[in-house]
Amino acid sequence: MNAMACIEDVKSVFRAVPFLSHIRTEEEYQGALSLVDELIDDFDSNVALIERLTDVIEEWESTDPAFAEFNAGVEALDAVDMLKFLMKQHGLGIADIPEIGSKSLVSKILNRRGRELTRRHIAALSKRFGVSPAIFYETPVSRATHWGHRGLIGDRENLS
């Protein structure tokens, strides 16, 4: 296939969907999120487009002032804070986390009383919540960017 023959088609697509190259407004951001939601149902056929969209969404979420407070809050979280955040987001209590063990153990971990999350705990929690285990291990500085297209940004007002 001759790439030059496709250039006009590509230009036409970018004119029709300008946020494929760069999100400039909240409206374009919302459009990108909606498009990802539609495309995700047929992920295998749409993987390249989904990856492109999540890249521009992540860029927007990393630079838009509306996300500054959320990003700063996420950057300050450690593994236990991440678990608390996920529990709050999903409306879960101590008894709702069997991946860790007994209610007593969950309580000790959440209250930082001599117990910490293990690799096994993190692997199980990551699977349950559909997040990368990296969010429990990453340095605080890199965490906010990683969370951008993981579905957590929509609840940025619930961070506290």
Q: What does this protein structure show overall?
A:
This protein starts with a helix and ends in a 13-residue tail after the last helix. The chain is mostly helical and 160 residues long. It folds into 2 domains: 3-63, no CATH class; 68-158, lambda repressor-like DNA-binding domains (434 Repressor (Amino-terminal Domain)). The protein is 62% helix and 0% strand. It has helices at residues 3-16, 26-39, 43-63, 68-75, 79-89, 103-110, 119-129, 134-137, 140-147. Residues 140-145 and 148-160 have low confidence and may be disordered.
Layout of strands and helices, then pairs:
Layout lengths: L2 H14 L9 H14 L3 H21 L4 H8 L3 H11 L13 H8 L8 H11 L4 H4 L2 H8 L13
Helix pairs in contact: 2-3, 4-9
Compact summary:
This protein has 9 helices and no strands. The protein has helices at 3-16, 26-39, 43-63, 68-75, 79-89, 103-110, 119-129, 134-137, 140-147. Residues 140-145 and 148-160 have low confidence and may be disordered.
Q: Give the oligomer, counting copies of the same chain as homo and different chains as hetero.
A: single chain
Instruction: Work out the radius of gyration.
Output: 19 Å
Number of strands: 0
Mean pLDDT: 83
Low-confidence stretches: 140-145, 148-160
CATH class of the largest domain: Mainly Alpha
Q: Quick one: overall form?
A: elongated
Q: What's the structural domain tally?
A: 2
Output the structural class. Answer: mainly alpha
CATH topology of the largest domain: 434 Repressor (Amino-terminal Domain)
- Helix % is 55-70%
How many helices?
9
CATH architecture of the largest domain: Orthogonal Bundle
